[in-house]
Please model this.
Amino acid sequence: MSPTPRLGPGGVREVGPAIWAFSRLAGRVSGTEPPAVFLTLGRNRRLFWGWLHFAGRLMPGGRLARRETELVILRVAATAHSDYEWAQHEGLGRKAGLTTPEIEGLAGRAEHDWSARDTMLLDATDELLRDADLSDATWHRVREHLDERTSVELLMLVGHYRMLATTLQALRVQPDRRRTR
Model:
């Protein structure tokens, strides 16, 4: 990926004072500069607020446990080669309970022995990313572990983060730098 953003993070004039302030607060909470994902997508203010509401319903406000949500998001980031998503969610995954061996397994740097539920989540994610569909056998495994609402959420979580990875990649959005004291 070219290091030069195709559409750089906007300033207060481009994103408006509400998105600008939200981004600065989000950066303080995460210990980074204001997140480029917000300041870039915020250039389309009308879409931004709808997207943020939707994304928040998946993470952190979803039905899946946070650890499981981060497991899925990191698998999408690794598969999509999304440096931005990986950088954003590796730390969130650790905070949610993912271990170093699990994160290395998600990144493809090591083998890991996953639980049956984690294996189902990863297999479903991989199949959705590869085929844009689930086989009947995989769907049956999903339903053995997840209720109806959470099954729908899993599908939308994978699709949302794949869409976001594509957008961030096409716009060449760079990972956020850690704030220095």
User: Anything to note?
Assistant: DSSP finds nine helices and no strands in the chain. The mean pLDDT is 94.
